[in-house]
Amino acid sequence: MRIVLVGPPGAGKGTQAAFLAKNLSIPHISTGDLFRANISQGTELGKQAKAYMDAGDLVPDSVTIGMAKDRMEQPDAVHGFLLDGFPRNVSQAEALDVMLQAEGMKLDAVLDLEVEEDEVVKRIAGRRICRNESAHVFHVTYAPPKAEGVCDTCGGELYQRGDDSEATVRNRLEVYHTQTEPIIDYYKAQGLLVTIPALGEVADVTKRAMDALKK
Fold this sequence. Notes:
Elements: E1 2-6, H1 13-24, E2 28-30, H2 31-41, H3 44-54, H4 61-72, E3 81-84, H5 90-102, E4 109-114, H6 117-125, E5 127-130, E6 137-139, E7 158-159, H7 166-180, H8 182-189, E8 193-197, H9 202-214
């Protein structure tokens, strides 16, 4: 199967992508992993991406699309893949369609993990990280430490990362609504969109997604 996974930050895309890819026996292709791999390996696309990133600029779609194309052409992706973080906008979605059509392929489904905005803020802004090397993660609501502000495992101080603050999360959501959310309508028009409620236990969300794909 060839699947795209979309949803706002904090929807659990990375977690669900890993479980779904394993259940479907297809590779999980993450934009973040693509960037890290290309930069660490010093590929031409990685060098281009790093130059933009070092300058504080956004990496152009052409570079991201090139990385995705290279990865989808690897042997393990011949019979399918799960894309996580790509496409990120309508231009990338159109480019993906062109790539697949050139190979006589098409997407089977686009899974949209649906979470209310206030829940996203609650999930991300509630995270607390241990300052020690272990960097254990807690949550003030869902996985609180036994003692407030103290890591259960090593006794280190827990803190909130700057990019987990409510203001930053709401800004990320605004970027998502502006840049990425339009691809939902794009894929809905193609009859590919499947909306999955992403509240509840991880296993329950995975089951909903798998059941939807079987239909």
